[in-house]
């Protein structure tokens, strides 16, 4: 029986993970083509090393991230990938006891250290900035269950308002959403964006905190089905991690592996215009594709949903996939001469009291990461302070030429101290980089999966990515692995039947 032809659309983390695991599971039973429209793989993950002087004659390098900069060790699929790619010796870890793990701030104002545990919350001085925090936390387990009967979803803001109060939701829930989704908590689906919170309320019989406490007593996710090697031991007691050359070490290593496989072909600067489903295979008209990719038996699409209505001319699918919204983020990487600032991971800025349209929005800063505190080990240039400011998202500002003094003024205001002129800075505009699931998103995804399981697709078309199963690096890696497993199983069944 001739090999199956599998086409993977999208060379970001999810698509790369899918191709990587397909190549491992089907070294001879499938031809795999990975298609990416950009000139590089990795998607939003981008790590750049910059040679720089410190202003006093010293030279060295710093690592700049244009996408995710830290990873959590709670994803077995991610730990497995680190092991399989041989990246363990490249790890840069942040222990749970480190300031970057324990100290996180909110600009309320002023810049305020958040309690890291319930005990520390009880012992925290009752400052005006934290006044809504402690009473809201203490009252929540005592509140009666108040989810309306039959409610299937609600906004993150509505969820926190219902359980903790409106001011808690504005100050703390909006900041949480700024840090993860760069979005408006009033528009984001809690069930899609933070499913663990929705589940915690059910587990706690109405109380989110009691549900989270019960979940904390449950065993950690079983890693027995994953080949994590000794990476699990390497990240024991670790809060977050990265690599010496940044998060892009992962897609670079996957690309290197795939290039060595005889049954894998990677095409960059290449795209398809449409996909037609047949009973036996798919038709993918494109002058750029080899015959094996033009008539694939299986497709794994890791493309953003915004591109799918035109790609899949199926009257039933656009209704399910054409509801996606995205956040656009403007990043500002900053390298300063070393100066004193709070030692921690960074800070987030809540939604303004007057909303995002307030006249004093300024640059619309969502938060700032103190990169030197967490990942200073990546840099060889000493005597500098590295930070990254994030702006945009729900502020809906028009991104013209960024104005550096405006951002530096905001940073000085947030830190409450003077800030030196930077030795180096760069702005990176990431357009529509984070999907922001709206209400009823999980229901639409469920309907979409059902539709793809029926003919003419019959499970041969997989739609995966941040919009389907989560926006974290671990989520994306896991989805690619799972999709590859399902396709590999279908191919094996076809081989056995043949």
UniProtKB/TrEMBL annotation:
<dbReference type="GO" id="GO:0004729">
    <property type="term" value="F:oxygen-dependent protoporphyrinogen oxidase activity"/>
</dbReference>
<dbReference type="Pfam" id="PF01593">
    <property type="entry name" value="Amino_oxidase"/>
</dbReference>
<feature type="domain" description="Amine oxidase">
    <location>
        <begin position="13"/>
        <end position="487"/>
    </location>
</feature>
<keyword id="KW-0560">Oxidoreductase</keyword>
<dbReference type="InterPro" id="IPR036188">
    <property type="entry name" value="FAD/NAD-bd_sf"/>
</dbReference>
<keyword id="KW-0274">FAD</keyword>
<keyword id="KW-0627">Porphyrin biosynthesis</keyword>
<dbReference type="GO" id="GO:0006782">
    <property type="term" value="P:protoporphyrinogen IX biosynthetic process"/>
</dbReference>
<dbReference type="InterPro" id="IPR002937">
    <property type="entry name" value="Amino_oxidase"/>
</dbReference>
<keyword id="KW-0350">Heme biosynthesis</keyword>
<protein>
    <recommendedName>
        <fullName>Protoporphyrinogen oxidase</fullName>
        <ecNumber>1.3.3.4</ecNumber>
    </recommendedName>
</protein>
<keyword id="KW-0285">Flavoprotein</keyword>
<comment type="pathway">
    <text>Porphyrin-containing compound metabolism; protoporphyrin-IX biosynthesis; protoporphyrin-IX from protoporphyrinogen-IX: step 1/1.</text>
</comment>
<dbReference type="GO" id="GO:0005743">
    <property type="term" value="C:mitochondrial inner membrane"/>
</dbReference>
<comment type="function">
    <text>Catalyzes the 6-electron oxidation of protoporphyrinogen-IX to form protoporphyrin-IX.</text>
</comment>
<dbReference type="InterPro" id="IPR004572">
    <property type="entry name" value="Protoporphyrinogen_oxidase"/>
</dbReference>
<dbReference type="InterPro" id="IPR050464">
    <property type="entry name" value="Zeta_carotene_desat/Oxidored"/>
</dbReference>
<comment type="similarity">
    <text>Belongs to the protoporphyrinogen/coproporphyrinogen oxidase family. Protoporphyrinogen oxidase subfamily.</text>
</comment>
């Amino acid at each position: 029986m001739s090999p199956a032809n599998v086409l993977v659309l999208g060379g970001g983390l999810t698509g790369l993970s899918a191709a990587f695991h397909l190549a491992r599971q089907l070294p001879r039973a499938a031809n795999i083509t990975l298609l990416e429209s950009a000139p590089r793989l990795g998607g939003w993950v981008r790590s750049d090393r910059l040679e720089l002087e410190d202003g006093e004659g010293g030279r060295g390098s710093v690592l700049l991230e244009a996408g995710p900069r830290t990873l959590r060790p709670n994803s077995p699929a991610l730990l497995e990938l680190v092991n399989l790619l041989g990246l363990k010796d490249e790890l840069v870890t942040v222990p749970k006891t480190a300031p970057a793990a324990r100290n996180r701030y909110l600009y309320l104002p002023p810049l305020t250290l958040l309690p890291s545990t319930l005990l520390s919350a009880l012992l925290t001085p009752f400052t005006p900035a934290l006044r809504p925090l402690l009473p809201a936390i203490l009252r929540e387990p005592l509140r009666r269950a108040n989810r309306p009967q039959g409610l299937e979803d609600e906004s993150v803001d509505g969820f926190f308002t219902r359980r903790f109060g409106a001011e808690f939701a504005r100050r703390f829930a909006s900041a949480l959403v700024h840090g993860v989704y760069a979005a408006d908590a009033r528009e984001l689906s809690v069930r899609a964006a933070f499913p663990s919170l929705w589940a915690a309320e059910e587990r706690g019989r109405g109380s989110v905190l009691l549900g989270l406490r019960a979940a904390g007593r449950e065993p950690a996710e079983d890693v027995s089905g994953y080949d994590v090697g000794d990476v699990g031991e390497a990240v024991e007691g670790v809060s977050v991690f990265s690599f010496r050359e940044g998060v892009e070490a992962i897609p670079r290593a996957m690309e290197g592996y795939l290039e060595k496989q005889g049954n894998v072909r990677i095409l960059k600067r290449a795209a398809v215009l449409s996909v037609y489903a047949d009973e036996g295979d798919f038709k993918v008209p494109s002058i750029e594709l080899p015959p094996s990719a033009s008539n694939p038996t299986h497709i794994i699409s890791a493309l953003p949903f915004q591109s799918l209505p035109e790609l899949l001319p199926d009257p039933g699918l656009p209704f399910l996939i054409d509801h996606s919204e995205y956040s656009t983020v403007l990043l500002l990487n900053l390298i300063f001469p070393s100066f004193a600032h709070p030692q921690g991971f960074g800070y987030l800025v809540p939604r303004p009291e007057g909303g995002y349209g307030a006249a004093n929005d300024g640059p619309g800063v969502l938060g700032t990461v103190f990169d030197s505190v967490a990942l200073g080990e990546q840099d060889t240039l000493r005597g500098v302070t590295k930070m990254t400011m994030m702006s945009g998202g729900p502020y809906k500002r028009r991104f013209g030429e960024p104005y550096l003094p405006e951002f530096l003024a905001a940073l000085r205001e947030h830190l409450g101290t003077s800030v030196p002129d930077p030795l180096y800075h760069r702005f990176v505009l990431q357009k529509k980089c984070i999907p922001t699931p709206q209400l009823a998103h999980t229901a639409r995804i469920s309907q979409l999966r059902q539709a793809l399981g029926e003919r003419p697709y019959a499970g041969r078309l997989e739609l995966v990515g941040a919009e389907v199963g989560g926006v974290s690096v671990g989520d994306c890696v896991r989805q690619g692995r799972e999709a590859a497993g399902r396709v590999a199983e279908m191919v094996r069944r076809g081989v056995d039947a043949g």
